[in-house]
Write a structure and sequence with these properties.
- This protein is an alpha+beta fold.
- It has one domain (23-89): Flavin-binding protein dodecin (Dodecin subunit-like).
- The protein is built from three helices and four strands; from the N terminus they run αβαβαββ.
- It has helices at 2-20, 28-32, 52-65; strands at 24-25, 38-47, 70-77, 81-89.
- It has a four-stranded mixed β-sheet, with helices on one face.
- Strand 3 and strand 4 form a beta hairpin.
- It is elongated, with a radius of gyration of 16 Å.
- The protein starts with a helix and ends with a strand.
Length: 90
């Protein structure tokens, strides 16, 4: 039983630590006032029924894959689908 509890705690901690390394959304002002290096642009398209959190999480994941620590949403819009683009910084 102790092993089972330890396994559950370890898995739960792993889930939280994965989200801790995700790229963080910042403002354009924060990007301008920092020494962050722009490393590219990412974009994502989601169904309009999805939340803005889903869009932000999608951009964060793509920024991670590009090696970024931060991203700034530079465009967002659409009708049946929401398209968003973000600058990626490290």
């Amino acid at each position: 039983m102790k092993v089972f509890k330890a396994l559950i705690i370890t898995l739960a901690a792993g889930c939280f630590s994965l989200s801790a390394i995700a790229a963080t959304e910042i403002t354009q002002e924060q990007a301008k006032n920092s020494n962050y290096e722009k490393i590219g642009v990412v974009d994502v398209t989601k169904k309009a029924t999805q939340s803005t959190t889903d869009i932000s999480e999608g951009l964060s994941k793509l920024a991670d894959e590009k090696g970024g620590k931060y991203f700034v949403i530079i465009a967002e819009g659409g009708n049946n689908e929401i398209h968003a683009a973000a600058d990626v910084y490290k």
